[in-house]
Hints:
The chain has no helices and eleven strands. The chain is an all-beta fold.
Amino acid sequence: QVQVVESGGGLVQPGGSLRLSCTISSNSFSFSAVDWYRQALGKRRELVASITGTGSTYYADSAKGRFAISRDNAKNTVYLQMKDLKPEDTAAYYCYFDEYWGQGTRVTVSS
């Protein structure tokens, strides 16, 4: 059974930083892409960033220049480093792997 577990969310002031982690229990982790999505209240879930098994990355326009996705295959973990956070980044952030979703971690950007 594949498990996807996010962590690292919290309350941060505008302009602050957070690093989210997504740990995945799967033998195919190192070969597979992992996505970070987010969903704000009342809005659709949207793709924020992706990383392939070979390390190629994709960012939504809203994340470019502020967010960085990376992976540590030895730890079966993908990270989302977020800086210069804005109130509009407030959302539940979800990790997606091989048709499995995590439970999400909430990020609140507020003064």
